[in-house]
Amino acid sequence: MPLKRKLSETRFNLLSSVATTTFAITAITAPSMAAPAEGGLEEIVVTATKRSASMQDVPVAVTAMSETTIDQMNVDVFTDYLMQLPGVSSGGAGPGQGTIYIRGMASTTPNLTTAGVAGLAPNVALYLDEQPVTQVGRNLDVYAADLNRIEVLPGSQGTLFGASSQAGTIRLITNKPNLNEFSGRVSGGISFTEGGEMSEKIEAMINYPIIEDKFAVRGVMFVDNQGGYIDNVAGTRSASESARFAGSVMRPNGTMTSPGFQAGSDLSGVNFLEARNEALVEKDFNDASYTGFRVSALYDVNEDWTVDVMHMRQRIDTDGVFFIDPELDDSDDLSVQRFSPDETEDEFDNTALTLTGKIGALEMVYAGAYLNRDTDQIVDYTDYMFVGQYLPYYICDAAVTYPGDAAPSGTCQAPNLYVASETETEVWTHELRFTTPEEHPLRATFGGFYSDQTLVERNDFTYPGSTNVIGYTPDQIGFPQNGALPGSSVSDPSVRPPGVIFFNDITRTDKQKGLFGELTYDVTEALSLTFGARWHDVDVRLKGSANSSFFNLFYGYDADFFGTNLDEQFDGTQVINGVEVPKGAEAKGWVFKGNVSYQPNDDTLVYFTYSEGFRPGLPNRPAGAGGGAVPAVVRTDEVTNYEFGWKLDLFDNSVRFNGSAFLIDVKDLQTTIFDPTVTNLFFSDNAANAEIKGIEGDITWAPASVPGLTVSGAFSILDTEIKELVGASVAIAGPGEDLSYAPSFQGNLRARYEWDWKSDWIAHVQPSLAYSASSYSDIVLINRAKQDSYVMMGLAVGVTNSKYSFEIFGENLTDERAQLNNNLVFDRERIAINRPRTIGVRFGVDF
């Protein structure tokens, strides 16, 4: 069944079910308020140090979006909450395909057709409650339903949060069941995007105390159907445009391509068949749908022990792509040409158990979780022709690519290529930690952590025209069907369908062990010292194989050809193409933290932090290829963070100003690379040492003289610089150049004014503004493109009482095309953008 039809049926069935099991179609709104605010600032309790404390009393940089702010800013999905956080940026190309960056510590965003097993570990950790859900290749795009808060901890958090937290940590904290009160909320909304389709969403929450003061359950479900806004327009492609036949030309970023193997050949005798896309032409073809639920149960065993169990299931369905082709000669600037269907199904199930109690004077927390994620994706791969000089071997007759003394002749089939990608991810995590009493002058948090992540990835690169190619061997028509290397540890040993010219079937395992601790001593009532350390042991392994019908035709099933055999990934080394290659990558050692904080009164806190972080390396799939140019193992990259911060509540608690100034040293920054002049496979490498300097802060003003008014703003100023190249396999931006996804300035400003309207109703108006300076998309020169600055404006007006609420909102009122990701991997510019101007209504009921 086509994904489009399945998506339509999913919408109908889920919306019908919701309509019959909830009270009414209502909407996402801020919590009801009985009266306007009387001045003063909201206190937000965070667990940034794995202890509950007011955000203003925690001597680390932490930005928190409360439940009220999340609702007021209409935050639902990954890009929504990142757009509200200066200093936090993202790359990627649509739902479920984003990568988080904090404080500009970025190199590149991976191409998702190979992002899993070949992908770098993220350098920003993502947590759902107590559970790390960070994944290689694709971050989990968790829908922000019924969240209590979002905590962002910029800077290295290596001692408490381990690997992949070297640039920071983002924590999504859910609302827990209330043991004493039955409550519910049903919410929803409809919006209209300029030049695009209508979107609709609905969310329902219920909290039910089964045994008062003892046992309660809480459930939330959501359906968010997001209409498309990018058009797939008519076009044609033929192999005559292949990089093989092209001369050296300038890429959109000003760098030059290498001339093709047959540049300048007389192609008049070649019959180039065209790929046409009339059957796929569609307006607003990039639909997306988030559907899912979360159920949690809280059992208060006694006054010392509680058990919290949570299960969440979520599915993302998308059609089309979320990037545009800026070079198309089309009146609509929201256009692209695709020649095969682009479809994604991304679903996960997650079960977590948290046990909290006391053992003597110690508080103990055990947090264990199991996460299973499956993604099925079809990706149009036709753009590969612009960079793939070997492509004509697979879709052109031998007389074209091996013409001998004569001019090329024969037929080149239509280059309508696609990749069918399947990934299966399983993650087990366990953490056991203890904390000593908060009231003691000497306090400690310590424990152990273990995680085991297995990622199985199968990519079938399908070139339909390859079944008609003739002439490479006597009587040859088409290539032999592809299959696994003999004896290899693939997950699917079956013969691949006709036309699968190349495939990957690789399993990656990431295992992590850690012991951690932080010790705090109050020298005086105002002065405290903290020391932290973490021992870690991370092991990354690959097994499986890749294979090509072309290799089989000429070389047979050669297990070591181009390093495609990845079996037996255990201790020791293997020899590939005469090169001795380590089996697996390991990061083992210590990271440390030191902190001095001074809090002379309840309204003032200043601190200095020294912290270290790391991201484990990985073995390279094409190790030994490219004449040994590709490193066998990518080294661990390391971070040292120096930070001075302040937290100030001023003018009788009407102004809050929190901020920090920081210096970050980055050693052996990792990056992902595709450069056919080195090897025709994606690979990773250590690129450079770098330095990041910056200042960030947030200010909130809630004047007592103007009840109901709150003004808040945040900013980030970054100065990133590549200091030294460390011998990468390709050309990297030179010393003095910026890192990627590192705007020199980001800021936002929001005001909200509430006033009594009639009877028990409260009205509000909320304008907002967000700005980002320009940035770069990569540090690899051939893929490096400048991403323009942007300004976006929003406005919301509405009314609320103790039960009902209604709001009209506008987002991106300036209709800005914010460049979220600029991809030049295939020598053609493809720009992922935000949603155009959107106007909508939200309405809801609490009970």
Quickly list its features:
single chain, 847 residues, mainly beta, Maltoporin, Chain A, 22-stranded antiparallel β-barrel, five-stranded mixed β-sheet, 50% strand, disordered N terminus, membrane, tonb box, signal, iron, Plug_dom
CATH class group: Mainly Beta
The main β sheet shows up as: 22 strands, antiparallel, barrel
CATH level 3 topology: Maltoporin, Chain A
Q: Radius of gyration over alpha carbons?
A: 28 Å
Strand content: over 45%
Number of helices: 7
Question: What structural category arises from helix and sheet content?
Answer: mainly beta
The overall number of domains is: 1
Summarize the SSE layout with pairings:
Layout: H1 3-21, E1 45-46, E2 53-54, E3 63-66, H2 67-72, H3 78-83, E4 88-92, E5 98-102, E6 124-128, E7 131-132, E8 147-154, H4 158-161, E9 168-174, E10 183-193, E11 198-211, E12 215-226, E13 231-232, E14 236-237, E15 270-272, E16 275-276, E17 288-300, E18 306-319, E19 323-324, E20 335-336, E21 343-359, E22 362-380, H5 391-395, H6 398-401, E23 410-412, E24 418-435, E25 442-462, E26 500-522, E27 527-548, H7 549-555, E28 573-576, E29 579-582, E30 585-601, E31 604-615, E32 618-619, E33 633-634, E34 637-650, E35 655-675, E36 679-701, E37 709-725, E38 745-756, E39 762-772, E40 775-776, E41 786-787, E42 790-800, E43 804-811, E44 819-823, E45 830-833, E46 838-846
Parallel strand pairs: 6-9, 13-20, 15-23
Antiparallel strand pairs: 1-2, 3-8, 4-5, 6-7, 8-9, 10-11, 10-46, 11-12, 12-17, 14-16, 17-18, 18-21, 19-45, 21-22, 22-24, 24-25, 25-26, 26-27, 27-30, 28-29, 30-31, 31-34, 32-33, 34-35, 35-36, 36-37, 37-38, 38-39, 39-42, 40-41, 42-43, 43-46, 44-45
